[in-house]
């Protein structure tokens, strides 16, 4: 969850830099006229916290767990109970992230998704409705309290070791790599012309730039480069929207759901691949028993190569991004216009730089050729860490277990680190999303040790085996569908 931006209305949180004190929101969501004054967020937060505190109501876990609906959402963070129902639509990380955690202890996910939660905690106060009853444990009773405590201690240790501090030079070199490749592609066309061989060559240069840009925007989306969230957001818009032509807001809303509930049916959009594929062990059986056969899923591991892999980015990501921009609510008009403006600069830049050589149609062909080639690269990188792992319905596990059981690593090497954008350290990334990726290899031994202590698997494999496991997992799911389909005749 991210509470870094300024929402409005009852229970609002604020921007890290300034607080608008003048807008008092009515029931219809429109601000009433008033005098506006602005104070630094931390100063205003301290002023709010100095107000007299009312005695807090106490709740049991049984009571809290009943408030897990879209129209009734409670969260527990550090034993405090918050009602986020009325504010969920304005959550900067997307309303579904809050909905996925409703009725649960969200302490670890809250800490994981916010690089500086202190300012956010101050503005949680308007949403505070109570606290856990004294006799209640810190988290639900089905969770391993010792594991939760050990993980929280590990995080405190890593914070002490400055593992969440970014090396700006590292990320500057990655940005320079992207910009140099983009510029080099144009210089080559300008100097040598737009023949077939030149076009193929610059397509590969631009593909590398696009793939590495994907990894870089991923870093900025998790706020792990700069101390101030606004600089991360600005850089993400530049990389994701200007350099890649995709809405950064769309990506964040989708990607944060994946992080909060990885490999959970109906909650993780990355595994919402029906009706074209069935994945895991449960979905194939369900489809088979219900005689659902949009496609012959027994062959899905074969058509994966000609559907999912090449069209993930140029078709699905691009169309879904465009639709998401147009689905914005009225109060998001400003964000919508910003998104449109940023994404438009991607196409304008290409028409200016490559249009004189290829024309409008040829430039569009070049753009989507590069996106197709990038998709062949990125699709495997994004799927190898999750598709072969546990996929299930909601089990409300502790943060550490839910991440470790649904992710796997790929062996480290200089090439693997560069080729995957350090997503070969997927376990560490999922446990600590705001950690700069250049520190993953340093914390991996500590994570592995904690897994061993609590009997959890720490999966680390060669990169070619990881790619092959994606195909084997799809083949296995297809076989499960076929078996269930044949064993349950139509009635």
How would you portray this structure in words?
The chain has 491 residues and is an alpha/beta fold. It is built from 19 helices and twelve strands. The strands form four sheets. Strands 5, 6, 7, 8, 9 and 10 form a six-stranded mixed sheet that branches. A two-stranded antiparallel ribbon has the order 1-4. A two-stranded antiparallel sheet has the order 2-3. Strand 6 (68-69) and strand 7 form a beta hairpin. Residues 1-42 and 44-52 have low confidence and may be disordered.
Topology record:
Layout: E1 19-20, E2 24-25, E3 31-32, E4 38-39, H1 41-49, E5 57-59, H2 61-64, E6 68-69, E7 72-77, E8 80-83, H3 95-101, E9 104-105, H4 107-113, H5 117-122, E10 128-132, H6 145-160, H7 168-192, H8 196-221, H9 229-243, H10 248-260, H11 282-289, H12 300-303, H13 308-326, H14 333-383, H15 399-404, E11 409-410, H16 414-420, H17 426-431, H18 440-453, E12 460-461, H19 463-487
Parallel strand pairs: 5-10, 7-9, 11-12
Antiparallel strand pairs: 1-4, 2-3, 6-7, 7-8, 8-10
Helix pairs in contact: 3-10, 6-18, 7-8, 8-9, 8-14, 9-14, 11-19, 13-14
């Amino acid at each position: 969850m991210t509470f870094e931006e300024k929402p409005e209305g009852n229970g609002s949180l604020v921007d890290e830099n300034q607080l608008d004190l003048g807008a008092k929101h009515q029931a219809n969501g429109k601000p009433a006229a008033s005098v506006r004054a602005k104070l630094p967020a931390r100063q205003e937060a301290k002023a709010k916290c100095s107000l007299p505190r009312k005695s807090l109501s106490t709740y049991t876990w049984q009571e809290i767990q009943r408030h897990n609906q879209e129209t009734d959402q409670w969260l527990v963070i550090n034993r405090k109970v918050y009602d986020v129902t009325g504010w969920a639509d304005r959550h900067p990380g997307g309303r579904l992230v809050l909905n996925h955690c409703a009725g649960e202890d969200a302490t670890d996910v809250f800490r994981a998704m916010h690089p500086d939660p202190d300012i956010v905690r101050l503005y949680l106060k308007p949403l505070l409705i109570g606290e856990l009853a004294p006799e209640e444990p810190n988290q639900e009773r089905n969770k391993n309290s010792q594991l939760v405590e050990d993980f929280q201690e590990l995080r405190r240790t890593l914070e002490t070791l400055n593992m969440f501090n970014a090396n700006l030079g590292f990320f500057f070199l990655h940005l320079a790599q992207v910009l140099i490749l983009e510029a080099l592609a144009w210089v080559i066309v300008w100097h040598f012309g737009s023949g077939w061989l030149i076009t193929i060559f610059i397509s590969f240069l631009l593909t590398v730039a696009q793939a590495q840009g994907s990894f870089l925007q991923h870093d900025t989306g998790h706020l792990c480069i700069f101390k101030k969230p606004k600089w991360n957001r600005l850089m993400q818009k530049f990389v994701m929207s200007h350099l890649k032509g995709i809405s950064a807001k769309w990506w964040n809303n989708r990607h944060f759901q994946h992080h909060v509930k990885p490999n959970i049916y109906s909650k993780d959009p990355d595994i919402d691949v029906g009706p074209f594929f069935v994945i895991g062990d449960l979905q194939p059986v369900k489809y088979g028993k219900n005689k659902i056969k949009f496609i012959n899923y027994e062959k899905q591991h074969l058509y994966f190569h000609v559907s999912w892999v090449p069209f993930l980015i140029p078709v699905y990501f691009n169309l879904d991004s465009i639709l998401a921009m147009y689905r914005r609510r009225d109060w998001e008009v400003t964000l919508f216009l910003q998104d449109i403006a940023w994404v438009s600069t991607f196409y304008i830049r290409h028409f200016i730089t490559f249009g004189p050589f290829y024309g409008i149609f040829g430039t569009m062909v070049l753009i989507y050729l590069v996106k197709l080639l990038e998709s062949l690269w990125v699709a495997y990188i994004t799927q190898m860490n999750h598709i072969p792992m546990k996929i299930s319905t909601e089990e409300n596990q502790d943060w550490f277990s839910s991440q470790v059981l649904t992710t796997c690593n790929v062996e480290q090497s200089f090439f693997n680190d560069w080729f995957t954008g350090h997503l070969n350290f997927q376990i560490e990334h999922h446990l600590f999303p705001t950690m700069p990726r250049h520190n993953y290899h340093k914390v991996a031994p500590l994570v592995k040790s904690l897994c061993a202590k609590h009997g959890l698997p720490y999966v680390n494999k060669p990169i070619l085996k990881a790619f092959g496991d994606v195909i084997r997992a799809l083949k296995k799911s297809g076989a499960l569908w076929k078996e269930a389909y044949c064993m349950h005749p139509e009635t």
